[in-house]
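Objective 1b. Sequence-to-structure analysis of Diguanylate cyclase.
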Amino acid sequence: MVHRCNEKTATFGKWMKIFLPLHKMRDYPPQFIIRDPITSGVKRAFRSGYEVAIVVFNINNLRDLPNHLGQQGYLKFISCLKKTFWEVIKQEIEEEDIIALHDYSSDGLTLFLSIDHNRYSVTEIDKRMKKILRESEKNMYVEMPAAKPTIDTGYMFIEKKHYSIQEAILKAQQQALAMAEKRVRSEFNDMLYSVNKIIAQKDIRMLAQPIINVATGEVKAWEMLTRGPKGTGLESPLQLFSVAKQTGLLYDLEMIVFEKILEQINATGCTQDIFINFTPISLGNERFIRDIKKMLAKNKNIPPRQLTLEITERDSIDGMENFLYNIKVLRTLGFRIAVDDTGAGYASLHSISEIMPDIIKIDRSVIQDIDKNSVKESMLQGLLLIAREAGSLVVAEGIENKDEASVLSRNKVDLAQGYYYSRPTALIQGLKSS
């Protein structure tokens, strides 16, 4: 598990190490551990249908520490750094999602994570990485108060379409490092320019996935899904929104998404309900109500009651003073509110009680293989009871086969969506086929 360090990585002393979760050690017999377990782990995640995020924790003053601490103090610092981060990461991230943690290719540590769309939003990833950084820095200060390291974090997703996994990993790591360092004339500025250009040119595409009435099989509504410029590194929504968040442009991007959806409704003449995803960060923005009203004024033929604003359940709403106020104002305007991913995290009941949503969307993690798992069906029944108590309709997400759909029917779930019914398509194509 150890590799000798070359000159470029000599700042970490004589050795550098790849840390793997214990359950993954079984995948690597001792004689093969030295052969790039990271690439193998990335490939496995891709084959399982997941994304892979690279998170860099960059120590800005690492090169000054040997002079400041002395050689022995510096080596102690490096050892403490690895141990501290590893312990905090294991507390915040499920072990099965950790591909590896290593301490080369940057002045700090690099974490590889397998990302399941159904369990992690961009905001959730960002929140957890900041918490890992905050807790690790606090623990480091207790262990070695004299070191006073300044650490920044950044993350990026590995492109699946890249012809070489190794080159895709290197590119993503360089971009994550640029996000952490926010260097002048760095890739951070290039990505900032790219997102600014996308926003300025409104260069995004909107796809639509139907939401089906379980009892009748009819299309009841459409959820709109965002894609970046085709054929670019920001085509994936995960890449696009993660870069936008880290460059401070998430609100601007989400408002462009809203504007484009209104344009599509006008272009297609769609009269069915439309679901639009928003992060709590944007919904809680002090400019949100004003900007929404401006767009509605330009599209007076689109009634707010046709639009459902979908909030990702995992994103914390605590401490956002404008959030609940904005939700109340949106309701007076006629919008409906949905809570997304219910059942996927610990904040489900809290979010429902705070927001009292019109619609509760049950996460794919509850629905997957529900026909084979009586406990999951009991969970579904419990969520249906909560929804009825709150006066909310229920949408089950991620239905992939007839057997899962049959469980929804016998439990009288209101609405459902997933590949079993239809993959995302252009709204106008969907309207013609429905």
